[in-house]
Specification:
Radius of gyration: 36 Å
CATH architecture of one domain: Orthogonal Bundle
Strand order of the largest sheet: 5-6-7-8
CATH topology of one domain: effector protein (NleL) fold
GO molecular function, one term: ubiquitin-protein transferase activity
Number of strands: 10
GO biological process, one term: protein ubiquitination
InterPro entries: 5peptide_repeat, SopA-like_cat, SopA-like_catalytic_sf
Largest sheet: 4 strands, antiparallel
Strand content: 5-15%
Protein name: E3 ubiquitin-protein ligase SopA-like catalytic domain-containing protein
CATH superfamily of one domain: effector protein (NleL)
CATH class of one domain: Mainly Alpha
C-alpha cells in the first residue's frame, strides 16, 4: 500500500476506504477521528437517500452496508489504542477532548486499566468499556458504558442525558435487549455500589420527570418499574419510593375505561407499602393520601389474584384499626379472628374514605362504580353514601355534591364531572327540542343540527325558487312580528317569548340575566344561518337571521348595557340589503367571542358542546 497516495486520497477525495486504511496503518487519534467523521457523514447521507430517493435506492443500500462495515473495522482498530490494560492516572486525554467537541462515539476500551482519581466528567466517552478497570475516585458523565467488575469506590458517576438527541431518547428509556440503554449501564454496575446506582436512578427520575412528563409513555414506565422492582435497595431510598408510588398512583387512574394497572404492579405496590414503608409512612399513606389508598383498595380487595386479595385485605384491616377510622368501622362484619369478613362483594363491608374532618362511608360496589364505571352509561348513585363531619352524620340532600366531589373527595372528581356534564347536555337537548317543536316541519332538522348532526345540502334552507324560504316565513309568522315597512322593528311575539321564558326557566331571573339567555339563543340561530348548518355557499337564510334579530332585539330591550354600541353593528350585519346574502360564519365567531366574555357562565350552559 502506498501510504502517501492513500493519505491524499483519504483527505482530498474524502474516500472512506482510504481513510480507514490510513487509520489502520497508523491508528493515531487524529486518523481515527478523521475516518469516523467522514464515515458518519457519508453513512447519514446514504441512509437518508435510501429512504427518500427511490431512483438509486439499490446503490444507496450498497453504500449503507459498506459504510457500516467500515465503521465496524474502525471500531476494531480503535481497540488497539493505548487505553486497554494501562495505567492512565496521568494519561493525556487531550485528543478525547477534541473528539468530545464533535460528540463522536469512540467506543474506547479501558478494560483492565487504572483510571483512579481522574476527572473525566468533561469528556464524551459513550460506548466505552471499563471492564475490570479501577475507577476509584474517578468522575465520569456517561450514558452508554459497561462497568462490569469495575472498582468504583468513591467514584462519581452521572448520566449525561443532555447530550442525547431527543429523537433517540425514547430508545434509551425502553429496556430492550437489542439496544444499548441506560438500564444496561445501570446493570453493569456491581450491586455492592448500590449508592452509585441509587444516585443514578434519582437523577433519571429528576431529569426525565417520570411521574409528571406527558411524553413518558407506558413502555417507558414499564421499563422503569421493572428495573426498580428488580432490586430491593432502590425501594429503601425514600425519594425513589415516593416516585414509584406516584407512578403507580397514576396507573390506577382511568378515563371511564378498564382499570389500567397490571396485576404484577398491584402486587408490587402492596409489597412496597408493607415492606418498605415504616409505620408513620403507612399511616400517612392511608390517611393523608387516602384517595390513592382507597383507589388501590378498590382495585385489589376483590382482585382475581388471591395473593393480591390477601395483601390488600391485610392492609385494610390495619387501616380500620387507626384511631381516626375506628369510630366508623362498627358496622363492618368481622370474623372470629377479628378480620373483616370479605365473603362477597355484596357483604355489608363498607369502604371508609377520610379527608381531614370529613368521612364518607359507602359500599364497595358503589365505590367501584363511582371510581371506574362509565358515568354516561352506568347506574351510579351519587348520593348512596353516608357523610360525617367529625363524627356527626350529615343530611345527604343538603350536601353540595359538586364541592364534595371536586374539593373534598377528589378521587371521584373526573367521573362526577363527566356525569354532571352528560346530565347537563341531556337537559339542554331536552330544552332545545321543546323550542324546536315551535318550528313545525323544521323541528326535527333544527334539533338534529343542535345535537351535532351534519345537515345535508338538500336540507339547507337556501333554494333558487324561494319555496323553502316562503315556507319558513310562514312558520316564523307564528313566532315573530316582521313589519313590512320597518324590518328594524322585528320582535318576538309575546306568546313565543313566554314559551322561551318557560322552556329555559327564566322565572325569578333579573332582566340582565334574561338578556344573556336571549343573546346566547340568538348566537345559536346566527350559527344556524351560516353555511356550517342551514346556509349554503355565500348565502344565509334571511328568515333565520330575522329570528336571530328578534332575539337580539328582545335582549337589548331587557338590558341595553349588555351589547352597548355593538348592538348596531350586529343588526347591520344581520339585516343587510338582499334576501339571502352575506354569509354569517364570521358574524357567528364574533358573537361567540362576545358571548364567552360577556355572558359567561350562561354562554357555557347554553352552547352545544361541539360548538365551543
Amino acid at each position: 500500500m502506498n501510504i502517501v497516495f492513500t493519505y491524499l486520497k483519504a483527505h482530498l477525495a474524502k474516500d472512506t476506504t482510504a481513510a480507514v486504511d490510513v487509520a489502520d496503518y497508523h491508528p493515531s487519534f487524529k486518523n481515527l477521528a478523521f475516518a469516523r467523521r467522514i464515515l458518519d457523514i457519508k453513512l447519514t447521507t446514504a441512509e437518508y437517500n435510501f429512504h427518500r430517493k427511490y431512483k438509486k435506492r439499490e446503490l444507496n443500500k450498497i453504500k449503507v452496508i459498506k459504510y457500516r462495515m467500515l465503521i465496524k473495522k474502525i471500531d476494531t482498530i480503535s481497540q488497539r489504542k493505548t487505553y486497554f490494560d494501562k495505567d492512565l492516572r496521568n494519561g493525556n486525554f487531550e485528543i478525547l477532548n477534541k473528539l468530545n467537541h464533535f460528540r463522536i462515539k469512540t467506543n474506547n476500551d479501558f478494560s483492565n486499566s487504572n483510571i483512579s482519581n481522574v476527572d473525566l466528567s468533561d469528556i464524551f466517552l459513550d460506548g466505552s468499556k471499563f471492564i475490570n478497570s479501577d475507577l476509584s475516585g474517578t468522575k465520569i458523565h456517561i450514558n452508554d458504558a459497561n462497568f462490569s467488575n469495575a472498582k468504583l469506590d468513591n467514584a462519581e458517576i452521572e448520566f449525561n442525558l443532555g447530550c442525547i438527541d431527543k429523537n433517540f431518547m425514547d430508545k434509551k428509556l425502553i429496556d430492550n435487549s437489542d439496544e444499548k440503554t441506560l438500564f444496561h449501564t445501570l446493570r453493569s454496575i456491581d450491586d455492592k455500589y448500590s449508592d452509585i446506582k441509587i444516585k443514578l436512578v434519582n437523577q433519571l427520575i429528576k431529569d426525565v420527570g417520570y411521574p409528571n412528563n406527558i411524553y413518558v409513555n407506558s413502555n417507558h414506565i414499564n421499563s422503569f418499574l421493572n428495573y426498580i422492582f428488580s432490586k430491593e435497595y432502590y425501594l429503601e431510598d425514600k425519594e425513589i419510593r415516593n416516585s414509584v408510588k406516584s407512578l403507580l398512583d397514576k396507573l390506577t387512574l382511568t378515563e371511564n375505561d378498564e382499570k389500567y394497572i397490571k396485576p404484577k404492579y398491584v402486587s408490587l405496590y402492596l409489597d412496597m407499602i408493607s415492606k418498605f414503608f415504616n409505620d408513620q409512612e403507612k399511616n400517612d399513606f392511608m390517611l393523608e393520601d387516602n384517595g390513592d389508598f382507597i383507589k388501590l383498595m378498590a382495585i385489589s380487595l376483590y382482585h382475581d389474584d388471591i395473593n393480591i386479595r390477601e395483601k390488600s385485605r391485610d392492609l385494610y384491616d390495619k387501616y380500620l384499626k387507626l384511631e381516626k377510622v375506628k369510630p366508623f368501622s362498627e358496622g363492618i362484619k368481622v370474623g372470629n379472628d377479628e378480620r373483616v369478613d370479605w365473603d362477597s362483594e355484596g357483604a355489608g363491608n363498607n369502604i371508609i374514605l377520610i379527608n381531614k374532618d370529613k368521612t364518607m362511608v359507602t359500599s364497595y360496589k358503589e365505590l367501584n362504580k363511582m371510581l371506574f364505571a362509565d358515568p354516561t352509561k352506568a347506574d351510579i348513585q351519587w348520593n348512596s353514601f353516608s357523610l360525617y363531619i367529625k363524627e356527626d352524620e350529615q343530611t345527604i340532600n343538603r350536601i353540595n355534591l359538586y364541592n364534595l366531589f371536586n374539593k373534598d373527595f377528589k378521587i371521584f372528581k373526573d367521573n362526577y364531572n363527566v356525569f354532571k356534564d352528560s346530565c347537563h347536555v341531556l337537559i339542554l337537548h331536552e330544552k332545545f327540542n321543546k323550542l324546536a317543536l315551535n318550528f313545525g316541519d323544521y323541528a326535527e332538522r333544527f334539533y338534529s343540527a343542535f345535537i351535532g348532526n351534519h345537515i345535508l345540502a338538500e336540507d339547507r334552507l337556501i333554494d333558487r325558487d324561494k319555496k323553502e324560504q316562503t315556507k319558513m316565513y310562514g312558520v316564523l309568522n307564528e313566532l315573530i312580528d316582521i313589519p313590512e315597512n320597518n324590518i328594524l322593528m322585528t320582535s318576538l311575539k309575546n306568546e313565543h317569548y313566554q314559551q322561551i321564558y318557560d322552556i329555559f326557566e327564566l322565572n325569578g331571573l333579573s332582566n340582565e340575566e334574561k338578556s344573556k339567555y336571549l343573546l346566547c339563543l340568538a348566537i345559536i340561530f346566527v350559527k344556524y344561518s351560516s353555511n356550517d348548518v342551514f346556509g349554503l355557499g355565500n348565502g344565509s337564510p334571511r328568515s333565520l337571521k330575522f329570528y336571530a334579530y328578534a332575539l337580539i332585539n328582545k335582549a337589548n330591550e331587557l338590558d341595553k348595557r349588555l351589547m352597548g354600541d355593538d348592538y348596531n353593528d350586529v343588526i347591520s350585519d344581520l339585516l343587510v340589503s338582499g334576501n339571502e346574502t352575506t354569509e354569517t360564519t364570521g358574524l357567528y365567531f364574533r358573537m361567540r367571542a362576545y358571548g364567552e366574555i360577556h355572558c359567561a357562565p350562561i354562554f357555557n350552559e347554553m352552547m352545544p358542546p361541539q360548538w365551543k
